[in-house]
Model the fold of this input.
Amino acid sequence: MPGLLQNHVAAVTGTGSGIGRAIALGFAREGAAIAALDIDGATAAKTAADIRSAGGKAHHFTLDVRDRVSCRDTAARVASEVGRVSILVNNAGINRRNAFTGDPDAVLKDWQDIMATNLNGLFNVTQAFLAPLRALKGRIINLASIQSFMHVRTPNSPAYTTSKHGVVGFTRALAAELGKDGVRVNAIGPGLIETPLNEQVRKNNPDLVKIFLDHTPLGRAGQPEDIVGPAIFLASDLSAYVTGAIVMADGGYRVI
Ligand SMILES: NC(=O)c1ccc[n+]([C@@H]2O[C@H](COP(=O)([O-])OP(=O)(O)OC[C@H]3O[C@@H](n4cnc5c(N)ncnc54)[C@H](O)[C@@H]3O)[C@@H](O)[C@H]2O)c1
Done:
């Protein structure tokens, strides 16, 4: 049986780890050719190699999403080496968990770094791949968060919460503007997913994790694989009439 993403080329940022890696592997299982992008080229190479050994198609590229010129150059390389991108997953993101009232220099650096990756990166990569996405009636999927709607008071930076609110704004704005081209733009809002992004906080603050999970109807933390189904849904024709949506994959955290 052909996969749900047969004949698609998917560019996924942050594919070296966690959610991005799981999405890339899942899309490849559904037949998409993958451009695996990560600032850490070695981990992107590993994801691409794992896809190929499972019988899929993947190339890796070292890409820092903060670098606008590199985004443009990488998009050109992807077009010639993999094909025209019809699915873009803006997944690369960072977090640091310092309070606004902490050391002012550290807080400023967190703000600048988090915005540069989580928001400017989103802009840079989307702009770089816009032409093929418009030509092919493509799909854009952005990684939002519970913190796109609230501030979760496990140790967390205001910059991260602000950036993830911005992801939702960008998703809605592009959905409105690109709908006439047949491009669908949606976001996924994961809850607590066990990845290296939150490894330290899970290790150092088990009580806070418990408070978080006590509020989660499904009563467990998510795994990267829990985000793959929603991503395939949004990337495929299963969601042909869905745009501007934020699909929460948070064990129910946000709704209670
Ligand atoms: N894990 C969670 O609980 C959770 C919850 C909500 C949202 N998210 C979001 O999901 C996305 C993925 O998070 P994750 O948990 O898989 O994190 P992760 O740390 O496991 O993986 C992030 C990947 O992004 C890459 N990356 C970082 N900066 C980059 C840059 N400038 N350019 C290119 N690649 C870069 C890293 O090298 C890494 O491979 C992020 O946007 C994050 O904010 C995660």
In short: The two ends are 39 Å apart (CA to CA).
